[in-house]
Each structure stands twice: as C-alpha cells, then as structure tokens.
C-alpha cells in the first residue's frame, strides 16, 4: 500500500492538462483547431496578401496570429513529448508526434512568408508597427526578425535555398545519423564476446576499469576509422553547402550565423575564449592528480570523463530527502525559488519513477497555454539524480518567471537557455559536496565538478578550434579524412595543453554535434552558458538573498535582449572585456585546491 502511494507521488500529473493520455479527446480537439488555423493562416499568406485592409494592419495581424499559433504549437509539442517519454511503446503518441511535425512544417513555411513581407515593408510602416501598443512588448523579436531577413537574399532566392536544403544539406546530416545508427562494435567483456551499438560502447567506456577502457577506445577509434571516408563526405558537403549559402549572402565569416542565433557579438566570443585560454593551465594539476588516483601516468581522452572509482560508497537518497534537500539549498539564495521547487513536487509536475519503458535522460518542457511546466527524470537515489532534478527544476523556474510575458518575448537562445538550470544544479551540487559523509565521497563529487570545467574549457574549446580551422580549409577544397584527423589532434593537443597520453583523432567522426544542420557551431554556446551561469552564481554568493530579485529580472529579459545588454543591465558587466569571464572562471575553479589536497592525502 505504502509503495503504491510512493510511486504515485513520483508520477507526474498530465490528466489536469489533457485527460486521457494519448487518447485524450480534449487534446485531439486542440490539435484539430491548431491544424485548421495553421493551414488557413498559411493559405492567407500565400494567396491573398492584399486581403487585409492596409499593409500595416496586415502585418500586425500576421505577427499576432503567428505568435498565437507558435505558442499553441509549443503546447502541443510539449504534451506529445511527455507522452512519448513516459512510455516509449505508446504507438498512439508517435502518431500524434507525426501530426505535430506536420503542423510545424506548415508554420515554418508561413514564417518564411512573414519574413518576406517584413523585408518588403518600408521604414515608415515598420515604425508604425513598432509604435503599436500591442506590438511594443514584442519589439525586440520583431526588430530581430527584420534585421535577420534584411541580411538575407531576396525572398525568392532564400526560398530556393530552403527547398534545396532538404536534399542538399539536411540530408547530409541525416546520412550521418544513418551511418552511425547502423554501426556496431565487437568487444570482449570478462571473456565473453559481445556485439554492441556505438552508443552502448560509449557508455561502457565511461564505466569500465581503466585498462578495459583503453582497449575499448582502440575498438572505438578503429570502427570510426573504418567509416571515416563516409563521415568525411557528409561533413565536407554539409559544410560546403553552408559556405556557398554564406558566400551568396555576402557573409565573410562562418561565425556570422551562430553568433546571430545566440544574439552575441564576436567581441564577446573572443573575450570569452581569451579568458578560457589564459586559464587552461590551471586545470593541469587536476588532470595530473586524477591520473595518479587512477593509477596511470597520464590520462587518455576517454579517462577524462570517467569516475575515480575511489570505492566510496554512495548512500541511496530517498525522493523525499531529495525534495527537502533541494528546497533547503534553494532557500539560501531565494525563498521564491525554494517555494517553487516545493510546489513542483506537491503539484506533481515531475515524472521521476524508476520503471521500465521510459526514455533515458531528463528534460523540462513548458506548456505556455496552461502556463505550467513538466519535468522528466528517472530517480534512483544517486547524488547525480538529485543534481539532475535540481537542474530541471531550474529550467522550470526560468519558464515560471516568464509565464506572463507575450510568447514572442520569451524565446531565449541556446547560450542562455542553460543559465537557470546550471545555476540551480550548482547550488545543489555544492551543498552535496559540503554534506559529503566521507572524504572519498567528497573527492568523487569534486571530481565530477572539475570534470565539467575540463569539458567546458578544454573539450568544447578543442571542438571550436577544429571547426574554425576545418571551415577555413574547406573554403579551398575538399578536406580528406586524414587531414581531418590531423586538424582534430592538433586542436585537442592545444586545448588540453598537451596533457593527455592519447588523443581522439576520429572525434570529428564520432561526435554528432558537427553534423547538426539546424544549428552550426554547436559548441561555444555550451561554454558561454556554463561561464555565464558561473558569473551569476559568483554574484549570488556575494550578495545572498538580495540577489534573488535581480536574478528574476535577468531571467525575464533572456528572451528579449542581446546577451551584452542582458549582462550590462543586470550585472553591470561588460561581456566584451576579460573581467567578467575571469571572475566566472575563478568561481568555477574555486574547489580546485580542495580537490588537490584530498587527492594528495590519498596518494
Ligand atoms: Zn538543461
């Protein structure tokens, strides 16, 4: 009996949103309406641009309709992702997913038509548009759209590019997925031969003992070496398409698009990497100590992310303990955040039950129509689970403070999307380090924290160096697999300061991020988000609860400001100068000495 109650507490409530799960009649009605509205909206834009009274009026109505449809699409997409995550075998949910995708495609092409009209609109009509009281709160989003569309080719040519993309660009990314999806590897574990997928092999490499990991890494490298020619084709053509489009638009740098997406300037990016490069050496004593704790002279590429396996026993944490711990730690910074976290549990916004049939990983998704969020995790009582829970509640808090703003003013970019979650997770992880019951446990937790700094300041930096140099060479012609290996090892040696025993030449083939067509340079936003959040944390630590009001104001502006303005307004910080980044790095590395001291005691 007690067990049933416990498990019900750990299951989320979706019934109060759309009762009946994937068979919900209410949700079906919601989708039907959305699809009908999206289709007729798209038809209005395509066929009868003159149907509206005046150009200004027309544009205003178009923007407000677009906002409404986008918000409802977000709601639909959120519900479907909850359904597919809670039961991966729910066929009905998958069918709903296909419908949502179709509606999204309709809206995306309608959006291109909106851009076309914005491009054609004269200065006067734009001024009138922005002066409209109903549109004024959306000014940032509208001006951004106008600026983006003006930096592009005439609408007809952009439309042609979009049409060519599905077979000539996006298809290369999909081909890569196919290549990796059907790859397998044969490994020997405890005398038993086993065929595993590449995803499985990656997991085993992290968990294996050091000697086995080295062997698995050989297999990993050789499997990607075997497919390297195919991966190189995909990477070269994907990049080639991108470069042709950029050239046609008159863009001289490959960073133009990713910087635009992340609403940041090149000066900010350079200031951040300069600070990172200046501080990389500080991580070397950590890497050396970790190597000695693992009984090797130097770490290999794949040892960096491995746990120490110090033999420290981790006690299982109950769900209720996690709830209290999170609320308690949040309270030290913000009573509002603590109350919100508690409400997430009480209102059953969290799906945490450890049961089969759930998809792996965690996420948080918002329902803008209902103005609520839902969190998905699998909780099995580890400190890592508690940190993940805090992370996702951080996302939900971000959505919570934005809930009353117009939808188009809440669309934040990837580089600030992780601000609230990283901050929330850091608060709880720090408290877990303080509360550790033994030195072994503390060492393991500190290791996880510093590992993250290495990932952000070395691994991601290597990806950025590689990608920048690869694009430079690609401008001059095809870059063969051999050369890609060389570029990759050079970038890794530079970013890790030559501190590793073995590098990962085929990392460019094994890492999905290089093949994501939707977002180029899927790397620096990670480091930005990590350090931006660390800078906020440093300020919060100095100011205590007084910071919580400013923090909410900052979060509320994440969807309607460029990052430089955001930092200037709410932290008085200039992101284009080194100071902010140095403070953020100092704060991120403040436990370095504690780790080294504990490690020395062990050795
Ligand atoms: Zn996150």
Structure description:
Strand 4 (363-367) and strand 5 (372-376) form a beta hairpin. Helix content is 66%, strand content 4%. The model is unreliable at 51-57 (pLDDT under 50). The protein is mostly helical. Strands 3-5-4 form a three-stranded mixed sheet, with helices on both faces. Strands 1-2 form a two-stranded antiparallel sheet. The structure holds zinc ion. The site of zinc ion (ZN) has 4 residues, from helix 17.
The chain-level structural class is mainly alpha
The largest pleated sheet is described as: 3 strands, mixed
Strand content: under 5%
Shape: globular
Let me know the average pLDDT.
92
Query: Residue ranges: pLDDT <50 for 5 or more in a row?
Result: 51-57
Rg, nearest Å = 25 Å
Walk across the major sheet and give the strand order. 3-5-4
Helix content: 55-70%
Count of helix runs: 27
Which tags fit this structure?
5 strands; three-stranded mixed β-sheet; 27 helices; 66% helix; 603 residues; two-stranded antiparallel ribbon; binds zinc ion; mainly alpha
